[in-house]
């Protein structure tokens, strides 16, 4: 009984600890909405305030005095209305009569505020999610009934709720009354979690600086870090060794250090021309010395004091001597004595003495102080007609072109004197040339080419062939013309300068210049500030090949396009969630109140009590921070299988064949004129659509192509081409425009909706529904959410042909099964993204992980788009650019399937930095990071208006491309193939980063294989479906991997471990053998005293005898004790030895120890007495 009581008390203590010690707190809130008791009766059928039954008639005008009693208890499968309310209970005062409501208003009803109908039951334990709530409506006793008979109605509800703001509506209706109310569970302030047992109190004091997020996790305030948010983040760049800070943003220097970042040491006081690497040092600069580095060791080189050609020599610090030339003297050779004695003038110059020294009068052709500089006679460009001038000593010479002669190339040469014309009537001399009048059949400058001969006719490697009326040149690839004189690919000579990129055209080439250059060959360097690239009215300043934007106070970035975060560089004081104060000198209070930008560029922050806030979003955006674009396609507005494209506060429908209109709800039709215009009667319109293998094709007016093919008429019908349309002659039993409808068929009325196919005849039919639709007529969306596929409390949203799970924070994946935890949100491109979210950024995909944004590294390039002037008014948004960009014309687009005049590219605020690489299309260059892929198309299947840039953009936007660029940058370049017709050559480059010095040679092979595998699958793009062959060029040999060294290392390691194991085993075996031998000796010595049956008196003598026998006659007591304690006998002092028990000692043997007691007898002789203790 005592043990059972202890167990019960221990269980009670555990229960109290589970409910109270966990510091959980919250409250269960029930909000009454309405109460309706039209007859004013009780649950038992009696009237509230009249002593009669409601069935007997009207209960009168006196209404019930209604009050409520709420009981909250644990979840019960079979609910018991009696018993204790485990979680708590609450009773209200009289709050109404027979019928009343608390939310909204109705005609003739009594309005109340929400607080009057709110019932709150607090709890102080960990919330268990499941519960049972009993709501009872009672009539206040007026003396007509007993208390047990005053129950008006009772509502019992069992549910499961997590703490939160969302309310759950409960409607209860019965014959007596109906009650409508909402319930929710909320945690008290500073308590969080699904059980309200996680405590987090924000603080900003000595013990920490943090706030709490929505999950109750500590989030350090801006400028603080560490496990307790007590460590201040110093000013950016502050030296971690020599700087410190007590508050965020400051940088206090340690003793001996200075500078804004505390990275400059203080030199020795008085140090003039010296520096320091450590405090209080003075390391002299070059040519300076002394304790304070104030002594000039190279006075001559620093000051150059010697004049008039004197030679300066350093003698001591700050001292020098000048060695003066003849004719000069003085400290600095400044005194002229006889300056011309040394003949300083060269090349025949005449010397004249002057007060400051001498002057040289130079002859013609020479100049300079001493006539040593030769005059450049070619400076005046004396040679005419393109002649080359050669400067000579006091003269010049002109090298003239062949047509000119004379000293300055101004005399025309008579070329006819050399008889250059071979097959000509005459030669005529011209100014700067000559002309030959050739015989019939001869051409050329010198009449040396026979028009009917192949000799020398074909240029640039062309092959000449004799034909009936002359010759014909078969040109090499890239050259055209009668004599192969026109180069088709003008880019082979690299005409573009300043790293410009050349684009080959049919009639020449065009250069795409880098930013800052212009001209036909990029030879002109233009002004980078024209037009002004800076945003938000910032001023542009030109630099060498670049520009600089002077940003206003609120903006930053290369082009001042990003909102400035002032709290990164200044200390900010948080006013509330929407406003921060920044220190400034521009206002009277030296504070500047700015927005915290928490709602991003598409929202306006609204401050709420208790430090909370809400974001008022612009139209088209939603989410906590207004960072999510509202999906306007969620309501499936496009009809008849149209594809919905979501925009910003708008959407656009792309209709399938046969449908048009803004919602794809208008059938397309083609008017077909009567065959005979003279036919009497009214004109008619025929509606025909032709179904091909993969898509619908509408009959187009004024088409010269045949409208019939093998699949136009179904079920054996015969197709007849009628100009712009067709007619089908159907066999017996079939009808319709394409003979696909059985006569008198139930499918005539088109009973199948949403793209369903009708199959049947007579009075019965069957609808074959498209994916995502069901029902007899395909009129119902498949309810995929009925099976609750979403896990972790996620919200399931039904969609056509599937469902979508809206995951709670911390979860992701198609079914929210992937738990990635809770972390800091990310700020990227002016927007704030929650932890774990994914989004697309052009051709890349990005992922937010604990405050860090990870994006794939595909170089997207400029995206092709349809120019606005090329679009009809209804399609103005088709293939448009993302927000903030516009579609502009671009002259470097290469047309693959004309016409391509409607294409442009999306504008960019900053010109992307070009990536220089040798791996370009048609270059033939290959290495371990470069591969070439040639896509060969069936040209008649390529849609008209397709450019090479369209094909390249589709490759960059493939999902597999993002996967390949998760770790390394992927560059894809495209151009027309020079070697293969109807083909596009793709160059794919994987670049390495600074921390990665080498690239796996198999990486580019995997990338090329992944791209080709993706191309082999079915695509939505018609252009990619036209690919008939793919060629891949890449390096296939990888350096072999050596396995000999690892194998040898493993073998030697195994042998070494085996040797160690054998040595340990052998050592332990030897120790056991020695111990066993020692135990055998000790057992033999103790055998007799253990088996002795003598009396107790004799046993003492035996023990003394045994001790003497063990000790020996000549051993001292100390020696004996030492002997007994040493060696293997020490192991025998352990009690309970197994071998001693086998001998039969029975009891435990205490350790024995012998001691010697010295005494003297009467004769004075010493005698030792031994005592053995067991």
UniProtKB/TrEMBL annotation:
Domain EGF-like: 296-334, 336-372, 374-410, 412-448, 450-485, 487-523, 525-561, 590-627, 629-665, 704-740, 743-779, 783-817
Protein's cellular compartments: Membrane
Record CDD domains: EGF_CA
Biased composition (Acidic residues): 1120-1129
Membrane topology value: Single-pass type I membrane protein
Domain DSL: 185-229
Pfam families documented for this protein: DSL, EGF, EGF_DL_JAG, EGF_TEN, hEGF, JAG1, MNNL
Region (Disordered), start-end ranges: 1112-1167
Source superkingdom: Eukaryota
Annotated S-S bridges: 187-196, 200-212, 220-229, 324-333, 362-371, 400-409, 438-447, 454-464, 475-484, 513-522, 551-560, 617-626, 655-664, 730-739, 769-778, 807-816
GO MF term list: calcium ion binding; Notch binding
Gene Ontology cellular component annotations, sorted alphabetically: membrane
InterPro entries named in the record: DSL, EGF, EGF-like_Ca-bd_dom, EGF-like_CS, EGF-type_Asp/Asn_hydroxyl_site, EGF_Ca-bd_CS, Growth_fac_rcpt_cys_sf, JAG1_1/2_dom
Listed transmembrane segments: 1043-1066
Biological process (GO), any one: positive regulation of cell differentiation
Signal peptide start and end residues: 1-26
Keywords: Calcium, Developmental protein, Disulfide bond, EGF-like domain, Glycoprotein, Membrane, Notch signaling pathway, Repeat, Signal, Transmembrane, Transmembrane helix
Role, per record: Putative Notch ligand involved in the mediation of Notch signaling.
Name the UniProt record assigns to this protein: Delta-like protein
Gene that specifies this protein: LOC114456103
